[in-house]
Amino acid sequence: MILAHTRHMYRLLSAVCFIAAAMLLIAVGLPARNDYTQIGVLDGQVIAADIGALAPPLDLTDAAGQPIRFTPLGEDKAITVINFWATWCAPCEVEMPALQALYTRYAGRGLRVIGVNLGESAGAVMAWSDRLGLTFTLALDPSGRAAADYRLRGQPTTVIVASDGRIASIIYGPADLAALEHFITPLLAEG
């Protein structure tokens, strides 16, 4: 009898807690995702690794030590594909021919591709690039700053930034050429 009464009390308490939580959510709502992913504000616009937000800037170097910069509201109004990868990542290697083909096909129409390597040496990146015949920009992220700003969950991750500096799409995992073209073709048509 006592056990049945205790179960009844727990069920009642659970129902009350659930109703109270639901009423709280209805009253105040959920927080905006940008509140958690925001890394700053530029000209009154949120910079965050989220679709619709301004893309975080990049200030990196390539394997030769030359600066690689991307700013969302910069003078360059190119559509930018930012791909995070590593040489030890098999899915990253699988998608590299698609990124190269995309760059080859659309660079003349204002497409910029930046491959951001995650923490590896310049020598390893150059050897990998040479082996795969890559001609698009490869940047080094030795400190992980860019990966942190883009709230990277894993690699490969590809972020497509429209010419206005806003993130248009994010692809988690390897992307093929058809998927990449699906996302950039409408952006090229706008520009």
- What count of domains describes the coordinates? 2
Distance from N terminus to C terminus (CA atoms, Å) equals: 74 Å
Main sheet record: 5 strands, mixed
Q: Helix proportion of residues, in percent?
A: 40-55%
Share of residues in strands: 25-35%
Classification by helices and strands: alpha/beta
CATH class of the largest domain: Alpha Beta
Q: Residue ranges: pLDDT <50 for 5 or more in a row?
A: none
CATH third-tier fold name of the largest domain = Glutaredoxin
Helix-strand sequence: HHEEEEEHEHEHEEH
Cα-atom Rg, whole angstroms? 22 Å
Structure description:
A hairpin with a 5-residue loop joins β8 and β9. Strands 7-6-5-8-9 form a 5-stranded mixed sheet. It is built from 6 helices and 9 strands; from the N terminus they run ααβββββαβαβαββα. The radius of gyration is 22 Å and the shape is elongated. The chain starts with a helix and ends with a helix. With 191 residues, it is α/β, with parallel strands linked by helices. It has helices at 2-28, 34-37, 90-106, 122-132, 145-149, 177-190, and strands spanning 38-42, 45-48, 58-61, 67-70, 79-85, 111-118, 137-141, 157-161, 167-172. The protein folds into 2 domains: 1-30; 37-190, Glutaredoxin (3-Layer(aba) Sandwich). 29% of the residues are buried. The model has no long low-confidence stretch (mean pLDDT 87). It is 41% helix and 25% strand.
